[in-house]
């Protein structure tokens, strides 16, 4: 069988030789490259001499080489898109020029810096350099110093490195900034007259206390027929952002803002995100709105979609609104309480219709003026958050439903739906078996029954010792949400149609949705044949942003735990692998690795994947996800963003002990 497969692969290599394919270059530490092609099983081997100016993460076109062997080989013939053009490293000076050596574990050439591009940097300075050009045939790339780093500020350097590693530039181009600066602040009377004017209707925003960009507002009034008119008003970014300009192209390439513990790397320049489009109180603002007529039973009787002009009367924080909900007293208390009742009804109906009620606990760091972590803040979803969440979900779903009905030549128009597929059966079956060990039944006969089982499980788990582990494992069985033109619905929310309409300041797909919806409302539809490709790009950028956020949080965890080296804490096992297990401290929510090597004095352990555990071969001692134990902090490595823990044997807090069955006589 093995020889047949090898022969088949060899023949495939011969048949594809000479072709050119598009993919992403992955450079290993050894310097060898592999191009990953979508829908192709094997990666294409690229030797260092065949990179042809491509760097790690670049999207490239590869020419397949002829030749034997099991692995496809090729050479880069074109760099289609740079994953990143900015790098952090240090400067070396020479007579008449300078060159830049990047701080990276991926091999890359030094960058030539002409003296006029040094911009005040000196030898050995830590700098950010932008790659200006690297043409085919040139021996080395040419760049310019963008900024000089403070060597003492490790935090700032680390955050910038994380952003650049993930492909997010630190700065906008001069051309993009110039376009943003030229956008007029004033709103013309002609523009106001072309929109529905709701400035006289009570309108307010509800946001985190430290928010600067307010991209959604809520309006409310009682109608003569007894219904409520509730408006969801979203910053009309697409009015200011002209397609195909340098500014629009850079926003698309970023595709999302990135939220790190001490900063935001914005998708749009601050002049747009924090000033022009931010729905600040007591200012006229241009918005794109979904306005609903809703009765006392929270039934949507009618809706209207279109462009509006609003005037926010008040800025609430979530804490302000939560106080009103709990005390029934405060500014606009009557309106807030009615909105909350309606939102809670929407929430209840959503779960009854198949949405899954995963609880979310957000961990944030309290930082000092230098950005160093000095404490942990745990944010939980309260009714004030749910009020906004449910109204945003209503707007997003309504826009998607509206667009889904539009057909051109009996075909749906290309549109960036936000979809979430059914759970992965391969992950679901072992999870259901694991949950059964705790006494929870799981019906996997249909997606509907799976959702029902999840909600019953999540309800019954409240306050139980196994709550944390089963919630985490349950989330891992879920497919990842993404953008695509294939409207398969959103399983987790229980919606047949869903999109992102409500955050255009920080998400590019929302801008795409606004443009398409405006075209539909004007009956002037443009078919974008590249929409699916754009959806893949924005989904990839979203994943990269999440990875950057995880990496920055990990850095803060390591930074925070450095002060506790040698100290002992209670923890919960949050993951297992063949080389050890991860523990999250109960007090700080900081995760570190207990290496299997540190357990060798107790026993020899093996991984039991179906039980999410490491089990001792002689003792039966078991370390299973969700177990409580005590750990000692051994080391905190900032450069590797890694915490190392050691298990502390404690008779009061001990992992699962396997009970051996008695032998029958």
What does this molecule look like?
The structure is a single chain. This protein is α+β, with helices and mostly antiparallel strands. The chain has 15 helices and 33 strands. Helix 2 (154-165) runs antiparallel to helix 15 (531-561), helix 3 packs across helix 6 (246-254) and helix 9 (333-352) packs across helix 10 (383-404). It is 30% helix and 29% strand. Mean pLDDT is 90; it is low at 1-15 and 658-665. The strands form 9 sheets. A 7-stranded mixed β-sheet has the order 11-18-17-14-13-12-19. Strands 1-2-3-5-4 form a 5-stranded mixed barrel. Strands 8-7-6-9-10 form a 5-stranded antiparallel β-sheet. The chain is globular and about 75 Å long. Among the domains are: 2-81, OB fold (Dihydrolipoamide Acetyltransferase, E2P) (Beta Barrel); 178-418 and 497-548, no CATH class; 565-648, Nucleic acid-binding proteins (OB fold (Dihydrolipoamide Acetyltransferase, E2P)), CATH 2.40.50.140.
Keyword list:
alpha+beta; OB fold (Dihydrolipoamide Acetyltransferase, E2P); seven-stranded mixed β-sheet; 15 helices
User: Given the helix and strand composition, which structural class is it?
Assistant: alpha+beta
Helix % is: 25-40%
Uncertain parts: 1-15, 658-665
Roughly what fraction of the amino acids lie in strands?
25-35%
Q: What is the global morphology?
A: globular
What average pLDDT do the residues reach?
90
Number of strands: 33
Termini separation comes to 48 Å
Give the radius of gyration.
28 Å
Largest sheet: 7 strands, mixed
């Amino acid at each position: 069988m093995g020889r047949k497969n090898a022969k088949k692969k060899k023949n495939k290599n011969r048949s594809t030789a000479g072709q050119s394919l598009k993919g992403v270059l992955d450079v290993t530490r050894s310097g060898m490259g592999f191009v990953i092609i979508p829908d192709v099983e094997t990666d294409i081997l690229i030797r260092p001499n065949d990179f042809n100016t491509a760097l790690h993460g670049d999207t490239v076109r590869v020419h397949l080489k002829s030749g034997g062997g099991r692995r496809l080989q090729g050479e880069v013939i074109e760099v289609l898109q740079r994953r990143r053009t900015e790098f952090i490293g240090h400067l070396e000076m020479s007579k008449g020029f300078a060159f830049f050596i990047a701080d990276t574990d991926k091999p890359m050439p030094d960058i030539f810096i002409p003296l006029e591009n040094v911009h005040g940097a000196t030898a050995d300075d830590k700098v950010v350099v932008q790659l200006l050009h690297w043409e085919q045939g040139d021996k080395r790339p040419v760049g310019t110093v963008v900024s000089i780093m403070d060597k003492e500020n490790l935090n700032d350097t680390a955050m910038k490195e994380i952003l650049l590693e993930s492909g997010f530039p630190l700065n906008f181009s001069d051309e993009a900034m110039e376009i943003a600066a030229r956008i007029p602040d004033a709103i013309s009377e002609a523009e106001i007259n072309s929109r529905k004017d709701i400035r006289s209707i009570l309108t307010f925003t509800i946001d985190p206390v430290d928010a600067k960009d307010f991209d959604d507002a809520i309006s409310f009034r009682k109608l003569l027929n007894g219904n409520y008119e509730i408006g969801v008003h979203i910053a009309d970014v697409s009015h200011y952002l002209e397609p195909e300009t340098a500014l629009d192209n850079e926003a698309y390439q970023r595709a999302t803002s990135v939220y790190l513990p001490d900063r935001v790397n914005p998708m749009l320049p601050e002049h747009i995100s924090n000033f022009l489009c931010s729905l600040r109180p007591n200012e006229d603002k241009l918005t794109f709105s979904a306005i609903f007529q809703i009765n006392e039973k929270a039934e949507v009787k009618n809706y209207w979609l279109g462009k509006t002009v609003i005037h926010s009367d008040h800025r609430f924080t979530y804490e302000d609104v939560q106080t009103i909900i709990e005390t029934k007293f405060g500014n606009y208390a009557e309106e807030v309480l009615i909105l909350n009742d309606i939102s809670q009804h929407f929430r209840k109906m959503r779960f009854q219709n198949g949405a899954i009620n995963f609880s979310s606990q957000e961990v944030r760091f309290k930082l000092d003026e230098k950005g160093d972590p000095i404490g942990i803040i745990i944010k939980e979803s309260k009714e004030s958050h749910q009020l906004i969440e449910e109204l945003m979900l209503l707007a997003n779903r309504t826009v998607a439903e509206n667009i889904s009905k539009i057909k051109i030549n009996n075909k749906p128009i290309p549109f960036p739906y936000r979809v979430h597929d059914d759970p992965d059966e391969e992950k679901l079956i072992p999870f259901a078996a694991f949950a059964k060990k705790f006494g929870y039944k799981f019906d996997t006969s249909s997606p509907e029954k799976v959702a029902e089982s999840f909600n019953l499980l999540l309800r019954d788990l409240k306050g139980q010792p196994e709550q944390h582990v089963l919630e985490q494992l349950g989330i891992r069985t879920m497919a990842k949400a993404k953008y695509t033109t294939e409207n398969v619905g959103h399983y987790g929310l229980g919606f047949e149609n869903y999109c992102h309409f409500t955050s255009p300041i920080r998400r590019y797909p929302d801008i795409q949705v606004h443009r398409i919806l405006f075209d539909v409302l004007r009956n002037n539809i443009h078919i974008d044949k590249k929409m699916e490709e754009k959806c893949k790009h924005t989904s990839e950028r979203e994943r990269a942003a999440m990875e950057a956020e995880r990496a920055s949080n990990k850095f803060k965890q390591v930074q925070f735990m450095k002060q506790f080296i040698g100290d002992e804490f209670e923890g919960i096992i949050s993951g297992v692998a063949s080389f050890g297990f991860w523990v999250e401290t109960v007090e700080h929510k900081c995760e570190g690795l207990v290496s299997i090597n540190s357990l060798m004095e107790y026993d020899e352990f093996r991984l039991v994947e179906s039980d999410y555990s490491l089990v001792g071969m002689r003792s039966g001692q078991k370390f299973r996800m969700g177990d409580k134990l005590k750990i000692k902090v051994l080391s905190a490595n900032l450069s590797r963003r890694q915490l190392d823990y050691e298990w502390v044997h404690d008779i009061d807090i001990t992992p699962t002990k396997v009970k051996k069955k008695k032998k029958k006589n």
